[in-house]
Structure formats: structure tokens, C-alpha cells
User: Fold these one by one.
Assistant:
Number 1:
Amino acid sequence: DAGITQSPRHKVTETGTPVTLRCHQTENHRYMYWYRQDPGHGLRLIHYSYGVKDTDKGEVSDGYSVSRSKTEDFLLTLESATSSQTSVYFCAISESSNSNQPQHFGDGTRLSIL
Amino acid sequence: AQKVTQAQTEISVVEKEDVTLDCVYETRDTTYYLFWYKQPPSGELVFLIRRNSFDEQNEISGRYSWNFQKSTSSFNFTITASQVVDSAVYFCALSERWNNNDMRFGAGTRLTVKP
């Protein structure tokens, strides 16, 4: 299994509060991704990183920000959480951006915004 | 942008039956990669297979087989002699050329295998 750890694994919080999810990898992979999984939508890309301090937006980036100060850590922040951001969040890593490289996923974080 | 459609939302079979999960994709690129992932009830996502657009050979891995047909833009997944442990949500995904940063997933098919 790829060395990917997501924390926390579960979180319940209230609307309007800030939330930060952490993804930690031990594979020294350059590329890291944050997805959200919702029924009927599969997985959708929120943001990704192609190196330390290098990030870009994905398909559903509104309301989210990310940071990557070290190769091994990729943080996802909800500045002011809304109920529509209740979801399961997955971090993924990839060795390169070549399309033939599969992404490997963490175990997910279940986030509930009340 | 590329698109992946998994029209089967849920499938239920009895153990030992064969089952095929459908995946239809759309892309304007001539070079692309298709993937299948499995998400068991425990929730993690497990990579199963990758196929590139230039290789239309079918692939078999134990009870699993994949049928890639460019003519119909399909990449279907068949489980032979299904087992209860095959119960999971299965996702098909597509990446175009040098853009693994924009992998698109289908909505997933939930497979339930009953004993």
C-alpha cells in the first residue's frame, strides 16, 4: 500500500468554522491531489500540487484552498465551512504527471458540516 | 473536457454469477489512459488496472477481465464467478495524454454479491 495518511479520519463541525485536512505521504512523490466524493458524482478534483508551493485548481475548487510547504504534506482548508462541503475527502499521490501513472489514494476523511 | 459514464448505478448478483460493469468515455484526445478502481465497504480506493488508448488487447487477471473497444468508446470490466468479497463500488476513470492532473471519474457502480 502507498504510504498515505489522512487526518483526521472523521470530523464533525459547524457551518462557518474553518477546517483543515492533512495528507501526509512517505513515498516522496511530486504530485498530490485532493478529491471529494459525493453520491452520483464519483470523485471530483478540488486542487492539486505539482511540487512544494506549486498548486493549481481542479474542477470544484470554490470554497477551498491548499498549501504544500513540504514534499510530504498537502493541506486542504475550508476557510468557512458550509453544509454543501459535507463529503468524503480523498488525498491521492502520483509519481509523475504522465497519464499512464495511476494515482494512489489515502483512506479518506469523512467530513460533516452541521 | 473528458467525461466518463457508468450508467449502472447498482448491480446485484448471486455468488458465482458472472457480472459486467460498463464504462463509456468521451475524449477528444487520441492518447489517453483508462483506469478502474475498487472501493470496498471499508472505504479505501484500490487501483485495479490501467489501459492506454493504443492497446486494445483485452486483459485478464484471475477472475477479472477488461474489454477495451475504441470503436464504441467503452472499457468494460467483467468479474467471472463473482464472490461476496467482490462487493464494492467500482469506478472507471480517464486521463488525457500528459494531463494526469485532470483525471475524470465516473459516478461509480455499486456491486452487491449475495451468498
Number 2:
Amino acid sequence: GQQVMQIPQYQHVQEGEDFTTYCNSSTTLSNIQWYKQRPGGHPVFLIQLVKSGEVKKQKRLTFQFGEAKKNSSLHITATQTTDVGTYFCVNAGGTSYGKLTFGQGTILTVHP
Amino acid sequence: DGGITQSPKYLFRKEGQNVTLSCEQNLNHDAMYWYRQDPGQGLRLIYYSQIVNDFQKGDIAEGYSVSREKKESFPLTVTSAQKNPTAFYLCASSTGTGRFKPYQPQHFGDGTRLSIL
């Protein structure tokens, strides 16, 4: 599958500030999945985006899939210390069935 | 509770030794996967299996081997040919994929941390 590039690699915020991570691909993606990995833990599935221009919300988290299906973003409003972790954007499509291609992730630190 | 169980949580390997990491799931999932994660990095796919008795190499299969004799089990052997095995190994499963349906989310186990003695 096509590698996705994720920025920023690190983000430090004060509790209550907003946070956004961006995911980009040079080719059109069939779909995107987002996962969160807490420090020392395992990735946990958050959401899947399939349609062009799709926007999905989960409480303070907003996920978007670009119109051209080449980029995606995750925005967290009013961060909390429980938001700490690494957020991965994952190319869930590609030429091999069942294969997920992980980006490097964005490591979020929230200072109380 | 349904889930994925990986064991052991920590494993130490001596030079020239093969070690096997266990992964068992009771989610009745068809597809299972093994990933390797190095510090500060994303996950890289080692092997995956979409059905019993069948598996395919991922991006970094050299020095690893797997088997899929039962639907519930997908053990990973790290062989002595893997010269840099120190990493966090994650097993995952999903309901599987098909040509005409979207990819399904993957459910991960708690991982095994492998180190060299």
C-alpha cells in the first residue's frame, strides 16, 4: 500500500488547547483509518473514512477525508490529559487485501 | 470477553536462538496479522493470514516465520536469521476483507517486547 506521510511528528500542547494532525498521500486512497496508541499500549481503532469529503465526529474529535481522497486530518478540540498518545493515520486500501500501511504517527503530549 | 491474547509480555532471546511469540484470538476473525514497532516508529507488517493454512509475507518478513493451523492461533517465530530482533511485536486480527467490501478495523493484542540478551 501507498505510504502516508503524517505531520507533525511531535506536538506539545497545554491542556485546553486544540490539536490537529495531518495525513497526506501522493496517490488517491480508497479509505483511511485512524488509530490511537497510548504510551506503552497497543493501537486502538478510532474511525474509518471512505467517502470523498467525509467528515465524522466523535465527541471532541473531528476526522476529515479530503475531496481528492489524498489527505485526511484529525482535530481535537480542547485537549485533555487523556488525549496523550500517538495518533496514526493508516492507508487501509492498496493492492494487497487486508494490508494496513501505517504512517509514522503524531506523538501528542498534553501539559496539565 | 472476546479479544486477542499475546504471550509472553516480555521475552529475551540469546544469540543463535529461535523464539516463538504466541497470538490467540477468540473473536472468530478470519484475518490475522503480525507487526513490528521500533521506538518512535509506526508499525511495519511482517506477515498476514486471511484464512487458515494460508499466509503471505508483509514488508519485513525476512528472519521471521509463521503458521496458521487453526483459525484462533497465529504464532510468530523470530529466527536467528533476524539480526536485529529487539522491538515491540503486535498481533492483530480483523473480520477479513473481500474484493467487494471495505477494509475492516484491526483489533490488537497487548504486544510482546523482545530483547536480546
